[in-house]
Each structure stands twice: as C-alpha cells, then as structure tokens.
Amino acid sequence: MKHTKHSTLPRPRGRGRGPAHGIGRTLALVLPVVLVLSGTLAVTRVNWTGSPSSSVLAAASEELSPRTATRAPQDLLRDRLLLELQEKDPGVALTDLQRAVNGRPSLAKHCVSIARALGRAAVRLYGPSRAQSYARPVCDTSFASGVAAQHR
Q: Distance between CA 119 and CA 97 in Å, rounded?
C-alpha cells in the first residue's frame, strides 16, 4: 500500500476557509435578529382595531392650521377631546381617548393627564355628580380623580 501526501503545507484552522465563509457566518448570526426586529415593527404598524381609520388622530390632523400642526400629538388630542366633551358628552370623549391610546401606544404616557383634564372639564360643564356618572376605567381612574380634584 502506497501512502500519498496530499499537501506538505499545514492546513489553516478556523477562518482560513476564505472570505465567503466569514460572510456566511456573519449573515447566519445577524439575519435572524434583523428578521425578528422587522417582523416586530411590522406587527406594531398593523391596524388591529378593525376600523378603517388608521388612528383617531388622523382625522383631527387633516383639519389643522399650520400653527397647530407643530404642537405635540398629546396636546392636539387633549384639545380635540375637550371640545368633544363639550359638544357630546364625557363618555364619548373617554371612549375616543381609549381608542387613541390603543391605536398609538406612544400616547399612553399622556393618558392620565388627558383623562384628568377631561374630568375637570366635565365637572365645570355637568357638575360633580353627573360628571362622576361618566367615570370608567380609562387610564386607571384618572377621569374620576380629575372630577374629585375639581370638586374639592
């Protein structure tokens, strides 16, 4: 039996397989992360409410003057809901607040202050007893605490 040497050079270990191997390994590590993040972002952009409008704020933003377009979204929402509270009732405004927060989760941190403002406005318009009758668990009990604060 004859022994044949294939190479007299020592074989490199690890990364010595060429640049394509290094690129493949990098892609194998990075690609799953990119896919998960892009999937997560896609899911957060989907309108899960089932209503045809993408956001409660979209309708309000279409009829804004240039001066109000530079205001923060939570300020625009609060002003629109206060107007709605006067024109309709606090229950409608609270429902729309909940829809706005569900449709745009970044508004959640402002939900408490908006609900309190609605509670204070409801007391001025309807009195404490009637205003309290509209209380519901939107942003915990912030509407009710706004009513109580105004009533003191």
A: 12
Whether residue 114 contacts residue 76, with contact meaning beta carbons closer than 8 Å, is answered with: no
Q: How far apart are the C-alpha atoms of 144 and 8, rounded to whole Å?
A: 85
Instruction: Find all residues with CB under 8 Å of 15, minimum gap 6, and list them.
Output: 21, 22
CB 120 within 8 A of CB 148: no
**pTM of the model as a whole:** 0.53
Nearest of 48, 25, 34 to residue 103 by alpha carbon: 48
Q: What is the pLDDT along the chain (152 residues), one digit of tens a residue?
A: 566 656 666 665 555 567 776 777 776 766 666 666 566 555 555 555 555 444 444 444 445 555 555 789 999 999 999 999 999 999 999 999 999 998 999 998 999 999 999 999 999 999 999 998 988 888 767 777 777 777 66
69: Cα separation from own chain's centroid: 20
